[in-house]
Amino acid sequence: MRLCHSRSHFSVPSSKVCMKSVEVFLVDAFTAEPGQGNRAGVVPGAWSLSTKEMQSIAAQIGAPETAFFMKATSPGADIRLRWFSPSNEVSLCGHATVAGFFQLTGLGILPFGKPLMVETKSGILTVRVEKDGDVVVPWFTLPTPKFRRAAGILRELEGPLGTQKMPLDAELGPVRDDYLMYVPLKRFADLSKISPEMDKLAEALERRKLGGVSVFTRAKSKDGDFRSRMFAPNIGIPEDPVTGSANGPIGAYITLARLKKGRGKGGGTFKYMGAQGDLLGTPGRVRVRVKVEKGALTEVTVGGRAVLSSRRVIDLP
């Protein structure tokens, strides 16, 4: 039996739910070309799925993450969103957020242009889906990152990561936030050579309670202000093709470096385009906006295009 969709998706119809099979939309985020960017599964009406069933669906889909939408439980939230990698639930996922809201607005479930309060494991996030003609761009606000110096952690990671002999961007230096590690390299050539020992890297990330490590460089490409790669073998993702939740903090970290040089201390919005996935043959582009007031970060917003690739039906036991 298949999941019987109603247009609301977030209230349970009395006679239309046949939850033995679930329809999953496969959406490529941070690109307008099918097969590029980063793929996510999207389940619009997950109100009756258990955590175990969501994990099973994510594992069968095999995308880096699958987004599950359901009725909100927090006061003031419009909708609830949970993200699962093939092996476990994750706290935050940018590309699956972009993919999910692209698909839900396309189905007519959610409106364009209206700020939506989204209940997640990382707290309440604000999402707005902008539409200009045929171009649809979901934007979402990330928790403002709080960076901490992490030279000691890098000494543990650089062996399995393979960056021991690669010069760092001395102006930035390695940092971490509550979820990820960020390693700034000086040269793009070194970024392209990284080949981690995934098992050892997974163990090191687990020891430090990190969700992954993003390695980046400020060496620009023709359409990117910075370029990055993201490794998260400890959550079942050896290398993530394009990572919105890492590109946003990278933009914020670069902005902090600019502020230290006296640029933009009075406030304003810094805009970046993050390039990722080219080395995997799945190029994606992440739009980043960083707002500054009185010399301090006040908001980090990430956006990007998306495209529906295909659909699948998952049968549950």
Explain what you see.
The protein is an alpha+beta fold and 317 residues long. Helix 3 (151-161) runs antiparallel to helix 5 (198-207). The protein is 21% helix and 37% strand. Mean pLDDT is 92; it is low at 1-15. It is built from six helices and 18 strands. It starts with 20 loop residues before the first strand and ends with a strand. The protein has helices at residues 51-61, 94-106, 151-161, 188-193, 198-207, 244-260; strands at residues 21-29, 38-43, 65-70, 79-84, 89-90, 116-120, 123-132, 135-142, 148-149, 175-176, 180-185, 212-217, 226-232, 237-240, 267-276, 284-293, 296-303, 306-315. The chain folds into two domains: 21-141 and 306-315, Roll (Diaminopimelate Epimerase, Chain A, domain 1); 148-303, Diaminopimelate Epimerase, Chain A, domain 1, CATH 3.10.310.10. A hairpin with an 8-residue loop joins strand 3 and strand 4 (79-84). It has an 18-stranded mixed beta sheet that branches. The protein is globular, with a radius of gyration of 19 Å.
Number of domains: 2
CATH architectural category of the largest domain: Roll
Give start-end ranges of low-pLDDT stretches: 1-15
Task: Give a quick account of the main beta sheet: strands, pairing sense, barrel closure.
Answer: 18 strands, mixed
Concise summary:
The chain is of the alpha+beta class and 317 residues long.
Name its key features.
Diaminopimelate Epimerase, Chain A, domain 1, 18-stranded mixed β-sheet, alpha+beta, 37% strand, globular, 6 helices, single chain, 2 domains, disordered N terminus, 317 residues
